Amino acid sequence: MDLFVRPREDNVSRLIGALSEVGFGIARELAPKEILGRPVFIFADQIRVDIFTKPWGLDDFDTAYARRLEAEFDSVRIPFVCLDDLVLTKKTGREKDEADVKALLALAERRRRDSPPAP
Prior knowledge:
two-stranded antiparallel ribbon, 5 strands, 19% strand
């Protein structure tokens, strides 16, 4: 799972608290500065979580958050980066990410093609 978090100590502290409830609770050993000191922090307990404080291609959390998409699962609203921002995060030059970009752009094109015209 990938998480893009607002890079503030209070926010990361809440994330550590939540991750401490997962698996063996090893997140309790983390300090917010460990996460905030890197653009990506890889955490693994029972699940792997890639915590992004500055994803590739995105400069500002608040701008990306304003463009987010949301879906509801079990009555909980979950925010997701928008498709355009997701494509930006994948433009790393890595072969794996290039395949993701190709698939995401095809999805975006299909959505544009299948969407009814604006009134």
